[in-house]
Amino acid sequence: MHGIYNPMEELYLEFQMHGCISYLPTRLPTDKELDDCWYVYMTAESEWDPYSDSFAHAEKPFEGTQDVLPKHSEHHHHVGCLIGGSTSSPRKPNVNPGTITLRFGITKQRVSQTLKVTTQ
Can you give the pTM of this predicted structure? Predict the structure, then answer.
């Protein structure tokens, strides 16, 4: 199990996995949530090394824990925030199948099949 822990807020956000990709499921907050929820700052001052072995060691104590949200405190202040979202649409290859046929010496049918399964 792995995630983000904020000791000042006693908040643990557990990552989910999609294959080998770790992610934190998010969504745009509602206007009510923006008015009523507290703000948690998650930016550290120290340099981050994503390949450090220390992460596995540091996360050991949190194995099997559930997300724990602290009670809202009136003492939380925020200076500013940025709320955003993004969407995507199916990508289309920007390469001509005829060019691929010539470069790789394969049939147009093979190019078409390859592009269907490799274009994200």
Answer: 0.35
